[in-house]
Amino acid sequence: MVQVPEKIFVRYPADGSTGLLTEHVNQLLQDQNTTWSQLRDGYASLRSAQTRTVECDGFSVVLQFNPARIVSTGAKVDERSIRERKCFLCLQNLPAAQKGVLFQEQFLILCNPAPIFDRHFTIAHREHRQQAIDGSVGTLLDLARELPGHTVFYNGPRCGASAPDHLHFQACPSGSIPVERDSVGAQYRSSHKTQSNVAWWTLKNYGRQVLVLESEDRQELESAFLQLLAAMKRVLKQSDEPMINILCFFTESRWKMIVFPRSKHRPDAYFKEDPERILISPAAADIGGFIVTPVEKDYRVVDAALVESIFREVSLDHTAVDQILHTL
Description:
By secondary structure, the protein is of the alpha+beta class. The protein has eleven helices and 14 strands. The protein has a single domain (5-327), classed as HIT family, subunit A (2-Layer Sandwich), CATH 3.30.428.70. The strands form two sheets. The chain has an eleven-stranded mixed beta sheet. Strands 2-3-14 form a three-stranded mixed beta sheet. The model has no long low-confidence stretch (mean pLDDT 94).
């Protein structure tokens, strides 16, 4: 086990500390803004970020122009590039000024130095291990419960994780991503069923495929999600983790998981030559309706037709999703 005493701001739950996890991470953010100049600069950049709403066919998205996100959006995630760079989530490679809240002795909750939300955390495993949700679903649910007022999200290693070689989650204020609101809207909700204390539904007329799972039973919800993961592997004939993004939050004594089954990571427009190139690399926030672009030209030209096209291109098609649900 990698030792991290010099990086610990506080343990949760543990040795003499009191208060909710939310209180500890908010205090961490306040402290780091004082002691860590890179984070302070990141939030200063966020304050100057521009946003606008794009009304699409039946749904809307928020665009954010945030130049500081060029490192993440433009990250090289091919195997060779990952192998040749130092992992920026490994403890020995974190900036000297960076500290975190140690959660359950396994994950270090860190302030994200290139935030897209006014509270943006990265939650990295203490050890360098592959990004994979299988075996970590319980941690995702625990984090959502212990961080009321926050949404915890996961990007698969092939569809949005800028560190696909290091297990991590992220967290932001609940309600920041449009799909959180839309997932309970009567105009979108369809294909509802309940199985083993877990309610399932899909979203209709939403421009991409979305699965929602809700339960007050942690064990049953974890089991249901793992069944979904197994069904995706069977239908898609994959042995590795299927391409997914996940949002998870806990409210009114219930967990809600919003799952986006994916067909590809980046749209074709990402790889075109300028001026046709559009630097949008959809991860959980983006596919959820909060689209970040670090290039001003893209921020100006992206319209409803382009958003709808990108979502269709990177989302698993409805026929495959129907087959997956039919096998459950």
